Amino acid sequence: MKSFARNLYQQQNGQRYFSVALKKKVEHSIQEKQKVLNHFKKEHGNAKLGDVTVGQVIGGMRSMPGLLYETSKLHHLDGITYRGKDLYQVKEQSPKAPGGSEPLPEAALWLLLTGEFPSQSELQEFQTELFNRGQIPAEIEKLIKSFPKTMHPMTQLSMGVLACQPLSKFAKAYHDGIHKSKYWDPTFEDALDVCARVSRIAAIIFHNCYGDNNKIPTADPALDYGANFAKQLGFNDKTFWELMRLYIVIHADHEGGNVSAHATHLVGSTLADPYLSFSAGMNGLAGPLHGLANQECLKFLLDLQDKLGKTWTEDDIRQYVKDTLASGKVVPGYGHAVLRKTDPRFMCELNFADQFISKDDNLVNLVKACYRVIPNVLEATGKVSNPWPNVDAGSGALLMHYGLNQFDYYTVLFGVSRAFGVMAAQVWSRGLGLPIERPNSFTLEHLIKKVEHDHHIHHGHGHHGHK
Ligand code: AMX
């Protein structure tokens, strides 16, 4: 039942809607969590979570415990969970578009914020709300359209998000002197606005780079987020809409330590508003070892096809991968900093391909053949911690299948999706009052001296000497 009358929405300043229902849920669960956190911190603030090694300090803080991050958790074997639900459960339990099979991004956002999926009526209202929040003032659209076409789409995304920063409600509320216990409220408002707007920004960038930015399709209030995004890119194939829904959901969140989530959190920890912090996260996502890997990965597959034609064999692939390694390059789409088995997001992509894509798509078949061949080759190097494919090994081939072949745009799709995770997480970081980040750093000389000193004591030359 449509329910403006039930007062689930209120109008603010005569022009913007906000969801009282969702906000109340978030507020309630933040308050409950805050109590748990305060008690836990008081009782167990000095409990140890492990030791920090010199190797970790030098090695990019790999696996070092260091962040509180509520929305999702990565397990090295089980993969990612959103609020405790793995991706297969998310797919199964999520509300779908009418007649659809894939999870809806807006439902995933609700889940990340609250820990539950929305009811059908909550979902409908949330969809209307996100649609309304997605509008971008004409002068900002004009600014984004003026970016040079040759500028990398990720640079345009980061700048496009920054162009919207003057709309930040958090920045305004902070300037107006809001009490710190209320920070989460305008953060929540900005977080929803960023998620709603980012797909429009991304659509403008797409047309700016590859089409005619005077002819950008408009969003349709009757459609869901994923369908609307695809439509604004100019894609009207309903199966592609399903792919966009799945794509946005599976790329959304990946616990807190990955570069885009951590950069967003780090910058946000200064009380920089969600636009500033999300834009920082996007700059990290633009790196080739992180989000840019999906464009690199498709390039790898296409180069392979170019060189070997469409009649490649598994032996050809094996040799090609060995040559890649010998030339000092990584094999994109393989390996992971945390996972130690095939990325479940890759499995979701394969399942999608099996369900929707014909068996004679050469590129999709190449993805599958690589999955059979590459792990063994990487394993044989003896140094790769995880030889299995990550999410990027499959996504490009699926996008190509539907004709989205502008592969320097792929990371922008990832960025649209990542907004849902890192913005939901920022609401929670504010809600729990997490402080500014400030880890300790060392010069190499300090580290060497410290280790020598400890070694000295440990071997009985100091006053603590035993053994
Ligand atoms: N191809 C070749 N070598 C690889 C490799 C790959 N796919 N993955 C790891 N290695 C190498 C590393 O370069 C490193 O070599 P070095 O000791 O000579 O520097 C060694 O194996 C050990 O690295 P690791 O512990 O296995 O990986 P990591 O945690 O340091 O890095 C990652 C993880 C993802 C950056 C790395 O596996 C990689 O570069 N993969 C290819 C790029 C890629 O697919 N990135 C996407 C990640 C997901 C995402 O963010 N989208």
TrEMBL record:
GO annotation terms (biological process): carbohydrate metabolic process; tricarboxylic acid cycle
Domain of life of the organism encoding this protein: Eukaryota
Annotated GO MF terms: acyltransferase activity, acyl groups converted into alkyl on transfer
Keyword tRNA processing: no
Assigned keywords, A-Z: Transferase
Assigned GO CC terms: mitochondrial matrix
Gene3D superfamilies: Citrate Synthase, domain 1 (1.10.580.10), Cytochrome P450-Terp, domain 2 (1.10.230.10)
A Pfam short name: Citrate_synt
Record-linked NCBIfam families: PRK09569.1 (NF007128)
Family classification: Belongs to the citrate synthase family.
UniProt protein name: Citrate synthase
